[in-house]
Amino acid sequence: MLREVARGGSFAAAADALSFTPSAVSQQMATLERDAGTALFERTSQGTRLSVAGSALLIHADAVLARLAVADAELRAIIDGRGGSLRVGSFTSATTAFTALAVETFRERYPSVQVHFADGEPYESVARLTNGELDIAVVYDLDHWTSATDYDGVPVGSDLELEHLGLFDDPFMVVLPIAHPLAASDGLSMKDIATDRILASSPLAEELKLAACQVGVELDIDDSYRAVGFEALQSFVLAGRGAMLMPRLALGWLRRDLTARPLEAGPVRHVKVAYPAGTLRSPAAGAMRDIVEQVVGSSRVAGVPASASSVA
Length: 312
What we know:
alpha/beta; rod-shaped
């Protein structure tokens, strides 16, 4: 109203421009003057003009209205999938196998949306999701370990705060030197690996113990070796310390002098897309979820099982 009074030179002109009565405009401007604590208008024979204080306030009014217009345009762009931002998280082996391709596919389809990507362990992505730092993330959990639990067993959040879309199951495989007697086997059982020391830290160690217990086998699990990635433990396998387990999705990092064999009834990672529960997801986040599902279901993704297109 202040801007229209300045433009039209009177309350009546502002009323016409805004489809109000002159009385309504007068009342609103009187309220604005009381809030400002000073006169905002000067009445002259030529009409109503802004005082020095009113002119100063008009500058800020124009700035506020301009920002509101920008905000409105940005919201409409987000609603239409033409703008805004999208913050995506993933864990490394998934990023290598399919998330990077999904992110770049999203960029091609929605070039006006600004994409931010953060690599991290599942519990790190969960913390970022619950803190509002991510909109969507690729995570995994195990049968007895949630993605909201860190590797020391400390919850960083609750899975109840998230919604999930299952992508596929990623089984762990036994990694052995190529000269190992079991290296040529098509598949291994828990009984087959019971004579080997298995290098595994939490939470995989606990998951492996439970899986072995279910088939009546006791394994020699050494949990004193802990590494950020799978590459470090492979060096100890080559040095003769024992065998190790790697998920199928991570076999791109398998050294040439090692081999990976399937393990019957072994631990499995359940790979999922996660996003905050109970919130209105942006069209961009919904589009990213759909693209991840499409990319995973395509034949372009190495390491993902053929049944990946079905919900886990």
